[in-house]
Amino acid sequence: FSISTYNKMWTDAQKDLDIQLWREREEFLEPEKDRVKAFKMLADSYIKYIQISRNLGTAHDRLIHQQKRTVIRQVLDGVMGRILEIKKEMVDLENSEFHYVDNILEDLKLLPEDLEVPIPRYFIKENLEALQQREKILDQILLNAGLQTQKPVKSMAIEEAIRMIQVAERARQGRCRAAFMKQIYLEEKRKRQTKHQVQMGPSPDAAATCIQKVWHGYIQRKKTEKMREEEMIFLGMSLPPHLQAMSMLQMPAGQVDSLQGEVQKTHEEVFIKDKLREMEGLDIKETLQDQISQCFIESVWQNREEGRDFLQDHDPELIKEEKREEDTNNVHCLTIDSLYRELVEEGLLIKAKSVNLSDYVGEYSYLGTTLRQVDIEPMPSLADVRQLIALYGILPLGSQTVHEKAPLVKALLLAGPAGVGKKTLVHAICTETGANLFNLSASNIARKYPGKSGVQMMLHKVLKVAKQLQPSVVWIGDTEKIFSKAAPKAEEEMNLKHLEKILPKFLKALKAQDRVLLVGTTNRPFDANLKPFCKVYQKIILIPRPDYASRFVLWKHIILQNGGVITSSLNISCLAKVSDGFTQGHIIQAVQAVLSELRLLQMTRKPLTTAEFVTSLARQDPVYIEEEETFKVTLRAMLTSCLSSSPATSLSGHI
To answer: What is the pTM of this model?
Structure first.
């Protein structure tokens, strides 16, 4: 693609945005009483804004003109904020986080992939240097504290090492000798040909023909190359020679990214700056001098006592104020560094795994609308879960503007059976936004900061570092233990109860400008007191077991990811069917157990079979129907409790 392509993409997105805003002013002017029609209007706008956001994001990534990118980013932030606003209206209308719009997608001739929430690359790219530096510091602290060791070097016996060196050396000598013998053969052949030509001599006709062939070939290549260039310029796929320097076709993707930072100061900008300085410099200088003089006369010297300043050389109080401000800033930075180091050494600030949201594999539900028409509430799909994580976790944390302007979500709960990928989603939020990850799980904070004052101090330090080095994610694994129904007995359980009482204050201290998100994960929500649970977590998202479509995609993805090869002897559809009741974690364990190093070496002569994976899967316990029913009952109770305690709290869906 060329620059004109991305300029056109930006222009088209802007036109679509103008049309959409005009349509909303017309359609949303009066309230719609029919809920079905109202939801369709909102869903249409939601899908359209996602398409506009995707096009704006692509144009922002690929254009190198800094001023254009600045304008596009402002519009992109506004579109993302509007997506979150419409999502909130859809949730309020349906009282559910999950919406089924397969019939609307069919009417609009769109695919389920068009519903995926696009994540802008600038979340990471514009802060890449700072993130790399922070990761380097974190690794060094962990290494010094003994919490992270360098990758161990695999040792081998001396005899094995000698044998390996001998094999490699013999192979090297064989290659060298073969190359040497080939060189000798070619040299002798050349000598024989030269001697023959000297003896016989070429005929004039043969010599002329040889020269003509070379010359005609050269001329024709030049003509063909010129014709190709003219054709590409005529088709608009290449730029004329005088604009060729700016052609995106001649730049690799990495070079475009680097140019986006280098093109900010161009010759034209310097010329305008010099011209302004020449024409308006004296006026600006005089104005500034007057302002500074006036400032010193009014803010500074008005209430100064100069009776004892006989020398009239300097005012020590002014110097003290300047130095005091410098010291305050220096002490503040030292404070944050020391707190950061302390939290890392205590294991409360951990290194997030590099996981993208796209790595959370799952298919879209195609029967949602059909099931609802017969009064059956469908289970949410993994694609729906992925969408909610992007909306409530990634977009607000990645953009300061979106976080401040869009509906604010401070706390998010991920509930589901063990192995459905709750921790993976937490790490994906951090990876996509470059956020710090604080681990306040019950098992991690045990015997650290004991007592009520200790828990308060811990949360105070976490809050201070999280706000200063935002964006940040505060993760509480097994969060149901903090809200346990059972009375506390041991000191560790008392600390968890203290945390339950202090968490609402922690959330209250977070303002719209603080990009800090509290994420809780639980696989036993039925062990918790629901009332305080719903007081802390605004959004409660159910993560179900994968359905057939998701299991089919997941089996294929995991097998290929672990080095396997899918042949006709491996029936993926059968695996997806028999693995009903198992989670993503079960499938990953089954695949990794089968695809050992030895099995991968045997794969060329012994292809993978379905029975191998079924046998490995059978050794694990699935999620039984009783556990699923318990989840459903608990989530119904959560819905009732959440709606009665706080209208702003919403659940992932009616079960």
So the answer is: 0.73
